[in-house]
Amino acid sequence: MTNREQWSSNLGFLAAAVGSAVGLGNMWRFSYLTAEKGGAAFVALYLFFTLAIGLPVMLAELTLGRGAKKSPILALTHFGGERWRSLGWLFVLTGFVILSYYSVIAGWTIRYAAEAIFLGVPLNPGSKFSEISQGSDAFIYHVFFMAIVMGIVVRGVSRGIERVSIVAMPLLFLFVCSIAIYAATLEGAGAGYLYYLNADFANAFAIDVVVSAAGQAFFSLSLGMGAIMTFASYLPPKSDLPRETVMIGGLDFGIAFLAGLMVFPIIFALGIQADVGESTLGALFVALPKAFAAMGGAGRVVAIFFFSALVVGALTSAISLLEVVVSAAVDGLNWSRKRSVWVAGTSIAFLGSFAAWNIEVLDLMDQVANNLLLLVGGLALSIFVGWSMRDPVSEVQIGSQISRPAMVVWHQLLRWAVPVVLLFVLWHSVPSTLVNVWNFLSDP
User: What is the C-alpha separation between 221 and 203, in angstroms, rounded?
Assistant: First the structure.
């Protein structure tokens, strides 16, 4: 076996894994869905699904990655034989597709952050977003962002990914806390807290709310795309995986919850609730900039912090996605890291160019990745570890102080609860996604 890179410290792994999980999904998608689906009832459902399906699947990914010491394709082959190799390919494909359009959105965040610093907040955010969200400008920033990600990943696990993550995650936390503290001082902020924290469960069990909460729990933790599995392959053999799972999940939820405390007071203080409900991208790049502009000079400072936080979150998540593809090339093709980064990064940038030139393509790619690829990958993974893998309980217990009965509960969740929930979400998300794909392809 060739020497495999390792994290230089457990803190480095934790920072990188949390960075993979914490991204635009926490500060962009979570706040939007909470606003659209009814506040604290959605938050409670999201937390429930995080505990019931998110953490069990994360622990399964960590177990496979650490045990095999390989990227997803070879990790699945190591534990399941050739018949499970295709699931590893699905993880790599999912990471490839998600990063291709995710980097376009990240490019927007870089532009908004830079313009907030040097030019201020646009007075007409709607027109501004229409102008820069697709076309040559979007393409240039997309390529620029991908170049940054490639420059970090090419330096390796400890010298590149780990060093950046250890700096980036405290910085992200500082940005989010600073804005949340400032937002608390705004007149009218209390209405935002009441909406966010009001536990009205009247509509909590509507099908669309349940589906959205389960999907967000899965999306937010970076599951079903091989990132956590790949990062786990660089862990030492006796790391405490249940402990790492709880810490990653807890920090991910904590930052998502803090993001709500940051966003909702601003939304209600400026009276832009109706604007936020239009779309996820509309909330992030139109409604909130409109609020920042209305706040005057203070709004510019808040905008700088806010979009800088988005850039940091997008960067740490993108690093993990590129590493999935790079690690697969290094392990499976025996390529050097440099060659793998160059080929994977440029290929992803090329695919993302279609999303950069046409925002409808970006939206379609997002739907396919989140409503199909991620969920199918997570479902197949739960079936593999739950039903096919030989004695996963003993594997996960290596280095852990958790009792075997507790790990048996985890195994049973993977066998029964996780597949049922993911099948339910797929049943309600696949038809509309396929219709949207068909309408896009058939539109002349």
Answer: 25
Query: What single-letter DSSP state applies at residue 331?
Result: H
Cα–Cα dist 241/25, whole Å: 24
Name the CATH superfamily, with its identifier, for domain 10-442: Hydantoin permease (1.10.4160.10)
Each domain of the chain, given as residue ranges in start order, spans: 10-442
pTM over 0.90: yes
| Mean pLDDT of the 98-124 span | 95
How far is the CA of 285 from the CAs of 103, 271, 326, 344, 363, in angstroms?
A: 15, 16, 31, 29, 15
Query: In the numeric block, which tokens belong to residue 382?
Result: 């739960």
Tell me which DSSP letter residue 290 carries.
Answer: H
- Dihedral (Cα; 153, 158, 161, 163), 10-degree rounding: -130
Residue listed under structure tokens 């934790």: 14
Task: Dump pLDDT digits (tens) for 161-201.
Answer: 999 999 999 999 999 999 999 999 999 999 999 888 887 67
By three-state DSSP, how is residue 93 classified? helix
Question: In the prediction, which pLDDT does 23 show?
Answer: 84
